[in-house]
Amino acid sequence: MEPDLIRHKLKEFFGYDTFKGDQEEVITHVMGGGDAFVLMPTGGGKSLCYQLPALLMEGTAIVVSPLIALMKNQVDLMRGFDAGAGSVAHFLNSSLSRLQIEEVRSDLLAGRTKLLYVAPESLSKEENVSFLQEVKISFYAIDEAHCISEWGHDFRPEYRNIRDMVNRIGRAPIIALTATATPKVQSDILKNLRIQDAKVFKSSFNRSNLYYEVRDKVEAEKDIIRYIKQNPGKSGIIYCLSRKKVEELAELLCINGISALPYHAGLDAKTRAENQDKFLSEDVYVIVATIAFGMGIDKPDVRFVIHYDIPKSIESYYQETGRAGRDGLEGHCIAYYSYKDVQKLEKFMQGKPVSEQEINKQLLSEVTAYAESSQCRRKLLLNYFGEDYTADNCHCCDNCVHPKEMFDGREEMKLVLQLVESLPEHFKIDHLANVLAGVSNSIIKSYKHDKLKFFGAGAAHSDKFWCTVIHQGLIAHLLAKEIEKYGLIYATEQGRQFLKEPWPLMLVEDRAFSNGTDDEDDEELSAASAAERNGGGAGDPMLLSMLKDLRKNLAKRLKLQPWVIFGDPSLEDMATMYPVTFDELKNCQGVGEGKAHKFGEEFISLIKKYVEENDIIRPDDFVLKSAPNKSANKIFIIQSIDRRMSLEDIAEAKGLDMDELLTEIEAIVASGMKLNLDYYIEENLDSDIVDEIYDYFRNEATSDDVNQAIQALGSDYYEEEVRLVRLKFLCEIAS
């Protein structure tokens, strides 16, 4: 097909005037019947490389894809491009009914379907293999091809069988596509698919619009909330390693006034789909997720990607950060790092096969080196994928924007190279570093390396320092890794030249990080912090007195009880933190969005004036609102009330009795969240009773204490009724 016609079809089907990068060359090659390996960074336009030729070629293209959600997304997209033709693209997987499967097969046999998305498991089924033998196949597209390799960040054993299935169904050109592949992974993909002669199309991995940053994992939750509040209205993804942390962090964000939803494989398919759609349609701006979220999701305006936990590999990190700034505009990538996180990941490896442990240890060591390094992060990332970044300063990472002092490290590098060249066998980085630092352990003793002349030759520095030197030697191409042998180090020809005649070599020491805390420690710290705020003094006594006077006067004007406006803990926080904006006020204990805007203006004005007149230096930090009890139930309860589910059904779904459920709802409301329970109250409570209780809390109560209310109202009122109406009152008036 002529190039002009291909470009015309590009405009007709996809609305683009020009191709991006290697797209046109890839498409022309595939349409010419050649095998191809396409390595493009996230957002580089991989999908178009198989979508357009599939539409133009005779027959059906088989697209192997790992995720059902991704397939559906892609199929919907293709149907939209083809003027709404519902048969142009289909997916075949376990989510389809028998009737739906028959419809797919009918369209395929009739030649109406140009793209068929299948999971590798579906491709392996005997019934599907037999059926597809009857279909004319234009080519096979293997998406997320890194899943083939054990060295890839998302290895899936089923991907190993794809070539055998291709041979059984009928040979046709193969195009393998991935956004992340080291030279080792690339080699694995080509070898396993038996397309070693395939033409390789490799785009630059440099995402110049992304800012990379690693932060010490100290009060990470508070730091995340502060960052998001400083960037209002921007979409972002926060990645956590565990489902439990996803739930907890999503809850914490909601409590602190940030619209967020969780996403992980433990949620049912309907909830996952709903949460994903809400994020894509900007009903919520933040998704807290495990790595189950994001693969193939095309949301171009994600402005930040945060890793609450350090990822397991550089490839995972690159893939996940690549979801930021796909429109070419700014993207901020923040990773939190602590030594304890690394220990946790190492602990997870125990009990796995030795070969798998070795691979995972090597991948983790690369992540650790990246996190702790003071070198340009762009240079480190690109080097990992076999690409050189030659600029001295990228001006778009924390290490380049805030550079550390450098030193001439030629003597240190010379010592490393002399050690490597003196050994008859090759060893890993940590082993070499231990030898130079004089650290004796069982492995060093077993090789008798504690007897070497180089043992302890660099004892003036730590083993960590020598790891840093070796990593920088790799970037400078003085050293290299044997990727087939779990990262063993050897000297390059350039390294041997350096030994003969060393040249100036500017190096930089790595950063030091905190140990971090376990989740249990986090809970203890939160509890201690809350206890300190509740009983540990009332801040500025003069300001507190003025705030109480203001509350009293305002209560009189509005004909409300003082506690309804702000409780004492809220005033004590104000007298400690000196909030002078609505956002700062909302971070005080017991102050939600509604209460801040309803009652806050005069309090802010008073505090601002007091701060100015008394030259108060305000604290830089804010008080982090925390849930009274961490519970995975909370998000479910909030969402269920939004959907107007009966409280009995909500309680049953979570295995709670009504008392326990009301306790959970009270905790949610106490944390500043407003809930609308009118639908339930109107259906289940007498309106006169509601009015009586409501009136009591509005006009008579000196606090929101339920027992006091029951004593005052009399024995005709049930505790459950009082609690429900109290919740209604707190949400409408006191929040």
Task: Describe the model.
The chain is of the alpha/beta class and 735 residues long. The protein has 5 domains: 3-202, 3-Layer(aba) Sandwich (Rossmann fold), CATH 3.40.50.300; 210-400, 3-Layer(aba) Sandwich (Rossmann fold); 405-508, Arc Repressor Mutant, subunit A (Orthogonal Bundle); 519-613, DNA polymerase, domain 1 (Orthogonal Bundle); 633-732, ATP-dependent DNA helicase RecQ (Arc Repressor Mutant, subunit A, Orthogonal Bundle), CATH 1.10.10. 50% of the residues lie in helices and 11% in strands. The strands form 4 sheets. The protein has a 7-stranded parallel beta sheet with strand order 3-4-2-5-6-1-7, with helices on both faces. Helix 24 packs across helix 26 (568-577). The chain is globular, with a radius of gyration of 31 Å. Residues 520-538 have low confidence and may be disordered.
Helix share of residues?
A: 40-55%
Low-confidence stretches: 520-538
Mean pLDDT: 83
- What would CATH call the architecture of the largest domain? 3-Layer(aba) Sandwich
Distance between the termini: 66 Å
Question: What is the CATH topology assignment of the largest domain?
Answer: Rossmann fold
What is the compact description of this entry?
With 735 residues, this protein is of the alpha/beta class. It is 50% helix and 11% strand. It is globular and about 85 Å long.
Set down the secondary structure blueprint.
Layout lengths: L2 H12 L8 H9 L4 E4 L8 H9 L3 E5 L3 H14 L7 E4 L5 H12 L5 E4 L1 H5 L1 H7 L4 E6 L19 H8 L4 E5 L4 H10 L6 E4 L7 E7 L3 H11 L4 E5 L3 H13 L4 E4 L5 H12 L5 E4 L12 E6 L6 H8 L9 E7 L1 H11 L4 H19 L4 H8 L13 H4 L4 E3 L1 H13 L6 H9 L4 H5 L16 H13 L3 E4 L5 E4 L1 H8 L5 E3 L10 H17 L5 H18 L3 H4 L2 H10 L4 H5 L6 H21 L19 H10 L4 H7 L4 H13 L7 H7 L2 H13 L6 H8 L5 H14 L3
Parallel strand pairs: 1-6, 1-7, 2-4, 2-5, 3-4, 5-6, 8-13, 9-11, 9-12, 10-11, 12-13
Antiparallel strand pairs: 14-17, 15-16
Helix pairs in contact: 2-3, 14-15, 19-21, 24-26, 24-28, 31-35, 33-35, 34-35
